[in-house]
Amino acid sequence: MTAKTLITYYSWSGTTVKMAKLLQQVTNGELLELNVNEGTFSSDMYETSGIATKQLETGNLPKLANKLPDLTQYEIILVGVPVWSSQISTPVQTFLQQVKDVTAMVIPFYTSTGSIGGYENDFKNMLQGLNVQKGIGMTAGQLQQVDQAIGELQDWWSKLTK
Questions:
Q1: DSSP for 99-113?
Q2: Burial of 161 (0-12, 13-18, 19+ CB in 10 A)
Q3: Structural domain total, the chain
Q4: Which of 27, 47, 55, 161 has the smallest set of CB atoms within 10 Å of its CB?
């Protein structure tokens, strides 16, 4: 029997949603996009980075615009994140604050254009006490090689769900 899986993600540029859809093919999980209100971020990457930095400095994280399902119904929750300046994107940080009471295995997947820094440690630290497993990251370039990306995701997934 396959574990009931939720694939939740935030995608600013469209890269993370590509990875989420590939993971859906591999896991047969349900997709849930995390949305923020229009105008929260700019279409300019550098301006968005400045907005996110300010959100982190002030602790004023963006509110999610969509209602979340009952997270306790899932056995596995995959959390898709664009890595911004080696940090978890602020909309996903908002989501992670709401994952504190789940018994599901929580696993990050992430996209980045450069260094991920201590991203996985930061993710795990935000969810102390939960069953957080090692995630997987890909770049936009890797995701363009669809067959190869699916193969890597299948290998990773099969090791996690043995």
A1: -TT--SEEEEEEE-S
A2: middle
A3: 1
A4: 47
Instruction: Compute CA distances 69 → 19, 22, 105, 108, whole Å.
Output: 21, 22, 16, 18
How many Å is the maximal CA-CA distance in the chain? 46
Q: Residue 104: which domain range?
A: 5-160
Separation between Cα atoms, residue 55 and residue 7, nearest integer Å: 25
Beta strands in the chain (DSSP E): 5-9, 30-33, 76-84, 87-88, 105-111, 131-132, 136-138
Residue 1, pLDDT score? 46
Amino acid 116: pLDDT: 60
Which regions of the chain are under pLDDT 50? 1
List, for residues 42-52, the tens digit of each pLDDT value: 787 778 888 88
pTM: 0.89
Distance CA 74, CA 3 (A): 8
- CATH code of residue 76: 3.40.50.360
First to last CA, the chain: 12
- Name the residue among 18, 157, 38, 149 with its Cα closest to residue 80: 18
Radius of gyration of the chain (CA): 15
- pLDDT at position 28 is 94
